[in-house]
UniProtKB/TrEMBL annotation:
Organism of provenance: Persicimonas caeni
Binding residue positions for ATP: 213, 215-217
Domain AAA+ ATPase residues, every copy: 202-331
Subcellular location: Cytoplasm
Record has Nucleotide-binding as a keyword: yes
Taxonomy of the source species: Bacteria, Deltaproteobacteria, Bradymonadales, Bradymonadaceae, Persicimonas
Limits of the Chromosomal replication initiator DnaA C-terminal domain: 414-483
Role this protein plays: Plays an essential role in the initiation and regulation of chromosomal replication. ATP-DnaA binds to the origin of replication (oriC) to initiate formation of the DNA replication initiation complex once per cell cycle. Binds the DnaA box (a 9 base pair repeat at the origin) and separates the double-stranded (ds)DNA. Forms a right-handed helical filament on oriC DNA; dsDNA binds to the exterior of the filament while single-stranded (ss)DNA is stabiized in the filament's interior.
GO biological process, one term: regulation of DNA replication
Entry protein name: Chromosomal replication initiator protein DnaA
Length: 507
């Protein structure tokens, strides 16, 4: 039976994107089979619920293909005993307080660490964007000290809530509503929502990792915002690991470690730590963070950490910390796909009152692919330029600007755009294409659009099925095979029809 499961896994790997396969399917374990019912195991309740809601049919399809008979799948969570055995996670409670007599020595080491961080930041950011000047650092420290300030009233006004968030260094604009969800970030988004709904619950710590400018800090803030909205009395502490270190240095200098510990270990319900990679090689900071982590974790407080890489790949971080970071849920965030990039641009444009046609959004989204911060920056620059020149944002203006910025213009297309172009060419609506009517006048253009979407985007058949109004992946597969087959066989009418549509798409 495990052979059948392995064959089903291979089939799944072909049907979904590699990112989805890694996130959802790779770690599903075959447990046993009873007749035609397959019992599979996953790591936790969250994965179970997510896979059941999104992928159960697909798994059953693949098992049916592999076994040659109808099957039913039942998912369950691996028992705590088995998980412990498999993960070997340390559960030993470590001593919480570092010995006071070691403090003087640590003080010396910490000062050296602090200096090193400041120097590194200055060297890395000569333009000044990431200055770590004494004033700025102190400002961050003051803000972090205020972090757990709560509104005095039990039912604070929206204004008071916003002030509480800002006191904690949280940008109130970075909430879940402002975050555009797509396949590249839906898992981490769902994990963050689950944590905000139930801090200190099953996913503790939540460890978010991914490349530069992909929305890690945004989601960290969103967790804090939601936690404060749900419980205005919750003490949310939000700071970067560098600020944690600076605050530790200040407390040691002022011989006030008690306040430091009270703030982080006793007066904190949700600890949000951004960019944990910055404490690499800072042994004393790591030691203090280790005790902070233990104190919060063992008293059921929520910890959320962001990083540029997954825990096991964090260089210069002690093994005991890295293993703790993996105790809860690790969720990665990938560069957004074309559709998500377009949706982000449209959302930001609307929020900032920038008027822009869809074709401009497509041009920007296909030219800047791997960093949302850059994408946003380009949009703001374009908006500013159009407003200064008192002219609308046109494709030509966007092209000129990309040229001046030395950004190569992309030609990637989105499924949504392909559907729009094909629909308009055949005098029907995108809704018709996404709908279920099967008249020839609609089903033919639908097949052309499916073929073109498969050819010009990097979406899998199941993803395309979703984008075409929730169709089964086999429908998309069949359309692609049919149109592709006719073209391969030299059907001139079909070739020229598809060429014509492509010319319009790539114009
Ligand atoms: N899916 C998204 N929807 C809306 N905005 C997004 C999304 N992803 C990123 N952004 C925006 O992109 C910008 C950069 O995001 P953020 O600062 O959270 O990235 P980061 O991953 O923390 O980057 P770094 O690695 O540099 O710390 C922010 O303005 C954020 O609001």
């Amino acid at each position: 039976m495990t052979d059948i499961w392995q064959a089903a896994l291979r089939d799944l790997q072909e049907k979904v994107s590699s990112h989805n396969f890694q996130s959802w399917f790779k770690n599903i374990k075959y447990h046993h089979c009873d007749g035609q019912t397959y019992f599979l195991e996953v790591g936790d309740e969250f994965l179970k619920a997510w896979i059941e809601d999104n992928y159960l049919d697909l798994i059953e399809d693949s098992l049916e293909v592999a076994s040659g008979e109808p099957v039913e799948v039942k998912l369950d969570v691996a028992s705590a005993y088995e998980r412990q055995k498999a993960g070997g996670g340390e559960q030993v409670v470590q001593s919480i307080d570092a010995p006071e007599e070691a403090m003087a020595a640590r003080m010396g080491r910490l000062q050296a660490e602090g200096q090193a961080v400041v120097d590194a930041a200055v060297v890395a950011e000569p333009s000044g964007a990431g200055q770590t000047s004494a004033g700025q650092s102190q400002m961050k420290l003051d803000r972090a000290s205020d972090a757990a300030v709560r509104p005095s009233e039990p039912n604070p006004s929206p204004q008071e809530l916003a002030e509480t968030m800002m006191a904690a260094g949280i940008n109130p604009r970075h909430d879940f509503d402002e975050f555009v969800v797509g396949p590249s970030n839906q898992f981490v988004h769902a994990a963050c929502s689950a944590v905000a709904d139930n801090p200190g619950g099953s996913y503790n710590p939540l460890f978010i990792f991914g490349g530069v400018g992909l929305g890690k800090t945004h989601l960290l803030h969103a967790v804090g915002i939601e936690a404060i909205k749900r419980n205005p009395q919750a003490r949310v502490v939000n700071l970067s690991s560098e600020d944690f270190m600076n605050q530790l240095i200040t407390s040691l200098r002022q011989k006030d470690m008690n306040s430091f510990r009270t703030q982080f270990r006793n007066n904190c319900d949700v600890l949000l730590i951004d960019d944990i990679q910055f404490i690499a090689g800072k042994d004393s900071t790591q030691e203090e963070f280790f005790h902070t982590f233990n104190a919060l974790y063992h008293s059921g407080k929520q910890i959320v950490i962001t990083s540029d890489v997954m825990p096991k790949d964090l260089p210069g971080i002690e093994e005991r910390l890295r293993s703790r970071f993996s105790w809860g849920l690790c969720a990665d965030i990938q560069p957004p796909e074309m559709e998500t990039r377009i949706a982000i641009l449209e959302k930001k444009a609307e929020a900032d009152g920038i008027e822009m046609d869809k074709d401009v959004a497509i041009l920007l989204a296909s030219s800047i692919r791997s960093n949302v911060r850059e994408l946003e920056g380009t949009l703001i620059r374009l908006g500013a330029q159009a407003s200064l020149m008192n002219q609308p944002i046109t494709l030509d203006l966007a092209r000129e600007m990309l040229d001046r910025m030395n950004i190569e213009q992309g030609r990637e297309l989105s499924t949504e755009y392909i559907i729009e172009v094909v629909a308009s060419d055949f005098g029907i609506t995108p809704r018709d294409i996404k709908g279920s009517r099967r008249t020839r006048a609609i089903s033919k253009p639908r097949q052309y659009a499916m073929y073109l979407a498969r050819k010009h985007t990097d979406h899998s058949y199941p993803q395309l099925g979703e984008q075409f109004g929730g169709k089964d992946h086999t429908t998309v597969l069949a359309a692609c095979k049919k149109i592709g087959g006719l073209i391969e066989d030299g059907d001139e009418e079909m070739t020229s029809l598809i060429d014509g549509l492509e010319a319009k798409l790539l114009r």
